[in-house]
Amino acid sequence: MGSKRQEIFETLASKSRIKQEVYSASQGEFKQLKGVLQRIENDYSEYIKNHDERVIIKYADTGDFSALLNFGGDVLLFYLHSNVFAFEKDHFIHEMSYVRKNRGAEYCGIVHIYNFLADSFKYNRLNDMGFLIARIFINADRHFFTEGKGVFNHQYFNFGEQQLSQEYWLELVESAINYSLRFDLHVPQYEKVQLVTLNQVKQLATNIKLPTSKRMGFKMSSRERK
After folding, report:
1. Domain residues for 138?
2. CA-CA distance, 185 to 132, in Å (whole number)?
3. Could you tell me the CA-to-CA distances from 189 to 193, 194, 195, 213 in Å, in that order?
4. Distances in whole angstroms, Cα of residue 200 to Cα of each of 123, 211, 216
């Protein structure tokens, strides 16, 4: 067997193995996340019913790669990407001693957390926008770090020292809830809604087509501090 072919086989076997391990770890952690979401529904519902029964706290398992948490007028969508990712050479992760000392530690699965308006799902408003609050990167050893808004931009960067657990997931989800609750629905700029098609107007009663979001023009920067 030629040396080039042997190198290909060894690289293929090595990368395939670590990617399968990352995929399995990410799937396992996503299942653990779903358990935490169910726990939040139970705990929050018990509290809310003694204060205002109109406030809805509802968890929904929407598939192997997604889950929803409805709280009041907001929804958090949790989405596990089906692929495993590496990072560009200039990414800060490569500067960490943990990554330099552990071959394959940089390969990660990703859980995305998006914030939507609850009415976007209730009324099937397909043009409504959700905002990415955070991305959670998980490697084969279940170590993680985050990027995103608020605490997700600065609090969870100790990649080699932080290993996911129910306690960490609870902290991450409640941070996302807290961040979402800080922002209210803003009236869109007049110029953005001054034109409407007849088709849109006819469908307003059943499927509102005018896009709605909490903050029009909001743009996410992965390292933006809030």
Report:
1. 3-185
2. 16
3. 7, 9, 12, 12
4. 14, 11, 20
C-alpha 37/C-alpha 32 separation (Å) is 9
- Residue 205 placed within a domain: no
200 domain residue, yes or no: no
Closest CA to 130 of 27, 213, 34: 213
Number of compact structural domains in the chain? 1
Residue 23: inside a domain, yes or no? yes
pLDDT for 198? 67
Asked whether residue 197 is assigned to any structural domain, the reply reads: no
**pLDDT tens digits, residue range 181-215?**
987 666 667 777 677 776 766 666 555 444 555 55
Has this prediction a pTM greater than 0.90? no
Distance CA 118, CA 145 (A): 28
Give Dmax (Cα) for the chain.
73
What is the chain's length? 226
155, two tokens = 């609090």
